## 1
Amino acid sequence: MMNALDYIDSPMDSISSNDPYLIVDVIELIDDDQVKILLIDHLLNNLLSIDNTPYLLGYTLYLKSTFMDNKNKILLLEQAKRPFKNAIMLDSENTTFAKAYLAHVYYDLEEFTNALHLIEQIPENYFAKLPSRQNWRDLKIQELKICCLINLKKFINFELILYKFLLKISKSNQYNIPLPTELSNTIKKISS
């Protein structure tokens, strides 16, 4: 059985596997954006459906949105909502991941109330407790929560929430700390 690393030198060959999860893993490993877009388009046109793979469909639409101009990005993010909502209701294995990415979708669409509502449903340190120990993902969720609160001007217990975020960063190794892009952009936005 091959894994994503087996395709690192020839990522387009992963298409022959007909395994959408493997192809997504390959997309996440490679740096060539043009090849990523080709693989994403292959997934969207051939392997993914709202009925069989709702989480992966939503995630792939979200990934594709990161390569698009603003108008097309918004369209893809809007399209990603439904599969993520389906995954939350029907795909118990990916429910929390679907909530996290739907929160990202809402955040990117500036639907901060919806984003915050989903973020608050994600158990604290959920991703760090997984076998893959994705502490960085918990930090990103906390960062989005802080940004939503700032954008919504909801400052009840804000100091404590910010303190917990900073404390968690201080206890994380440097490889588990995501670049706080959303927080930086939010601070810039309110400062201008």
## 2
Amino acid sequence: MKKNSSIAIMIYLSASFFLMLFFISMIFNILGYWISGGDDIFMIVKRNIFIYLKVGCVGFFVGFAFWLFKIR
């Protein structure tokens, strides 16, 4: 097996972009809610978890595109 196998790079790029966008969207949404005077932060996370997952999936496809066009 090669030192940097192509499949491992694809998984790494896709997963890292997914996690990055997932956590960034969640953190900025929570901070905006908290700054505007929100009381129950856990309720907004529970209510918007599917939005965070959708944004994370966009990151997965961006990572795949980076791998597909060999942008490293």
## 3
Amino acid sequence: MISSKWRTAAGVVALLGSATGELAQYAMAPAHISGGSAAEQVAAADGDAAIALCRE
């Protein structure tokens, strides 16, 4: 059986990891897709992906 200290530590790691991931996603998202309708955001993200693939 897992002790409560290990469960607490695992919970803290999960919360910090998810918060860090969300911050990284926010930092990496282009500013021009932060507003508008869902369709506009998807179109902008799709265009960015195509540009990124063409640079390789």
